[in-house]
Amino acid sequence: LWMSSEDKFVVKVNLKDKDSEIRLSVFNILGKEVFEIHNGKPINGNEYEFLSSNLPNGIYLCILTGRNFRDAAKFIVSR
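RE: above sequence
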């Protein structure tokens, strides 16, 4: 997970099983899902972009869930 511009984040996902279903979502620090970035089979290139301009300042978790795994990355939105 990295910030590519002032208000755009990029999530790069490397999967061994390209046919597995994944879900990539953003949650606030209270555990409420703010929005879903992707749900389904991985896209080509495995890079997903989302804008943080709609998010208020705060701490967020980007959670990737698959069939046999779950991974999270914390990020902060501050303007």
